[in-house]
């Protein structure tokens, strides 16, 4: 295949390198784009200042979920007597938990590194701090004294943990999520500032490990991006677990010293703890990387893109957390694959253009206890968008496998009036394993009757999806429609 790049420029004074694509950032979106482009026969320069895999693999998704699995083990041991298995926890060795998480990260990283760096796969990994520049008016990526040019550049520099202007992150008493993952001992008490996905996952894990946890959330409810029924159920479950919560509570003042952290809320409430986790979201990593200077339109740190993920500069794309929307690793994967195929289609390598990625159709999972999984629109958003909608909530109390697991929760369906299912929202143990089918239902515009005709294995939690659709189709089996 002929390269997109004009090879006559390969030996110019700027030290330009001939590649079909240059990808800046080797996190979820960046390496997925590189791998798919290489599969399509393109040569790729993958620029990364740290390790391939990015935040998700090294400081986010993977180590966090490993920690949450250890927390689940602790809860299983502690609650074993209800299953007739009597056991006791000798201690929670947080250093051991971190070592376990590191081992998981190490194995995944080894496999990914081999995949990306394999001989003859068309990917050249460039180690170093990359910056978007323009050589002779053409967008380029500069790393040290080398310049990498291509007709197509992909910005995939990811995100960083946000803080508040008045807070000083010291890494000892006031921490980000990345720093919290490296703790080698458990605090006796902790304040979690932020009740979004990161906040509730850490709060859940720490509580399972025996920490006295208090969540402070400025918005009216926890996990505000979820359907309000999910938030209500999670708050009830957290109260039962003795996780303290203050919602609609803004931070007024915070002081930290060797003895701990003291917080005052706007309403005058005072809280104290050994440390505080700042989990107020993640910001796009665009500052100081030359984006604006190269003509890329940036809004509040996020890169503006078309529905085809192209920036304001022709041939320059942005993927993953740089693009406003849900900051999820699998969204980054999808963006990266999409851009590689979009470039291939424009080059005539692929006949069919890839389908655009709709954020509402991206599955969402929060791995706290109980788990949350959802896809599509919540009830309030659906009513705003479509007017008349129908909903049905199936209580997991009617599901045999859920009873075996001793979990509480529900599956909630949202459909357009007499139309397809446009939202599925679930809470309970292991509901993350149901979101794959839920995504197929909403993404393929299935009607309740379509799913009701499918046979779900018994006993399994997937039956809960089947039962809910049976009820919404007007023929309930183990529930009242």
Give a nutshell description of this structure.
This protein has 481 residues and is α/β, with parallel strands linked by helices. Helix content is 30%, strand content 25%. The strands form seven sheets. Strands 4-3-2-8-21 form a five-stranded parallel beta sheet, with helices on one face.
Helicity range: 25-40%
Secondary structure: number of strands: 26
Distance between the termini: 58 Å
Strand content: 15-25%
Keyword list:
alpha/beta, five-stranded parallel β-sheet, 13 helices, 25% strand, disordered N terminus
Protein described:
The protein is an alpha/beta fold. It has 13 helices and 26 strands. It has helices at 28-39, 54-59, 61-78, 94-116, 177-180, 197-208, 228-240, 329-346, 379-386, 400-405, 435-443, 448-452, 462-472, and strands at residues 16-18, 21-24, 44-48, 123-127, 130-135, 138-143, 146-149, 152-155, 159-161, 174-175, 189-193, 212-217, 244-247, 251-257, 260-265, 270-273, 275-278, 282-284, 298-299, 302-303, 316-318, 364-366, 371-376, 389-395, 410-416, 421-428. It has a 5-stranded parallel beta sheet, covered by helices on one side. It has a 5-stranded parallel beta sheet with strand order 10-17-11-12-13. A hairpin with a 2-residue loop joins strand 14 and strand 15 (260-265). Helix 1 (28-39) packs parallel to helix 8, helix 3 (61-78) packs antiparallel against helix 4 and helix 3 packs parallel to helix 6. The chain starts with 15 loop residues before the first strand and ends in a 9-residue tail after the last helix.
């Amino acid at each position: 295949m002929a390269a997109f790049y004009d090879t006559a420029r390969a030996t110019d004074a700027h030290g330009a390198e001939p590649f079909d694509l240059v990808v800046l950032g080797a996190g979820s979106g960046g390496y997925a784009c590189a791998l798919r482009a290489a599969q399509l026969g393109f040569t790729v320069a993958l620029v990364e200042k740290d390790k391939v895999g990015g935040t998700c693999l090294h400081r986010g998704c993977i180590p966090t979920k490993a920690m949450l699995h250890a927390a689940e083990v602790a809860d299983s041991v502690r609650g074993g007597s209800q299953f007739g298995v009597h056991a006791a926890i000798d201690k929670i060795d947080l250093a051991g938990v971190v070592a376990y998480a590191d081992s998981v990260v190490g194995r995944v990283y080894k496999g990914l590194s081999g995949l990306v760096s394999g001989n003859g796969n068309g990917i050249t990994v460039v180690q170093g701090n990359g910056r978007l520049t323009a050589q002779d008016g053409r967008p380029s990526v500069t790393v040290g004294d080398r310049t990498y040019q291509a007709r197509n550049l992909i910005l995939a520099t990811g995100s960083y943990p946000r803080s508040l202007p008045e807070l000083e992150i010291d890494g000892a008493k006031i921490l980000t999520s990345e720093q919290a993952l490296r703790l080698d001992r458990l605090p006796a008490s902790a304040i979690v500032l932020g009740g979004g996905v990161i906040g509730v996952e850490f709060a859940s894990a720490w509580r399972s490990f025996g920490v006295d946890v208090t969540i402070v959330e400025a918005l009216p409810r926890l996990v505000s991006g979820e359907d309000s029924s999910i938030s209500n159920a999670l708050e009830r479950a957290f109260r039962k677990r003795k996780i303290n919560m203050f919602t609609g509570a803004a931070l007024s003042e915070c002081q930290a010293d060797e003895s701990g952290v003291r917080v005052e809320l706007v309403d005058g409430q005072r809280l104290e703890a050994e440390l505080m986790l700042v989990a107020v979201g993640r910001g796009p990593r665009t500052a100081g990387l030359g984006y604006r200077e190269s003509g890329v339109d940036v809004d509040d740190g996020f890169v503006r893109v078309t529905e085809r993920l192209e920036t304001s500069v022709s041939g320059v794309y942005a993927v993953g957390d740089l693009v406003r929307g849900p900051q999820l690793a699998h969204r980054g994967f999808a963006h990266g694959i999409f851009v590689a195929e979009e470039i291939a289609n424009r080059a005539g390598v692929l006949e069919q253009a890839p389908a655009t990625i709709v954020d509402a159709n991206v599955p969402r999972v929060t791995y706290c206890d109980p788990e949350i999984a959802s896809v599509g629109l919540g009830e309030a958003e659906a009513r705003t968008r479509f007017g008349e909608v129908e909903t049905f909530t199936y209580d997991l109390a009617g599901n045999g496998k859920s009873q075996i697991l001793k979990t509480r929760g529900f599956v909630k369906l949202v459909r357009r009036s007499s139309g397809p299912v446009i939202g599925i929202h679930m809470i309970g143990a292991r509901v993350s394993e149901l979101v794959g089918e839920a995504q197929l239902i909403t993404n393929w515009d299935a009607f309740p009757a379509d799913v009701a005709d499918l046979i779900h294995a018994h006993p399994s939690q997937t039956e809960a999806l089947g039962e809910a659709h049976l009820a919404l189709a007007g023929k309930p089996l183990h529930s009242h429609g």
